[in-house]
């Protein structure tokens, strides 16, 4: 009889310190779980991790029961939920948008509104604010992973995106993801 895999999503946040990512990964592996997806990144001076774990019933039970003690031991706030992998989206093609612009409060909201109006799905967002090395002006860079319906004409979407970027005084690229 084939073994049934179970999935657990974990989000952890806490004060950053050396080897924290390694300690978290070790704790997962010690309990017999595999890491199916992982995003670990600093947020200011904080450590943040989002993990999708997989394993059999026994491994998931060990992991879930260990979470409160693990949170205390590692100095993390940990939230978990039973989960499953995302279903393949065959009616969509993967695209990536990149925007570089002067820092402005409304930028991300405007981009999200635009993509919602275009009936595209936002899958992942990465944003960084910084000061320009040449001028000192406050700037930001946004990377957005998208799913675009197969019936959308790519050039029409790209033209509308570029018009919106012009309105926001931003430089933008919208290209298919080549896997």
From TrEMBL:
One of its GO terms (biological process) is regulation of DNA-templated transcription. It is found in: Cytoplasm. Pfam families: ACT_6 (PF13740). Keywords: Cytoplasm, Repressor, Transcription. It comes from the Bacteria. GO terms for cellular component: cytoplasm. Signal peptide: none annotated. InterPro entries: ACT-like_dom_sf (IPR045865), GcvR (IPR016867), UPF0237/GcvR_regulator (IPR050990). PANTHER family: GLYCINE CLEAVAGE SYSTEM TRANSCRIPTIONAL REPRESSOR, UPF0237 PROTEIN MJ1558. This is Glycine cleavage system transcriptional repressor.
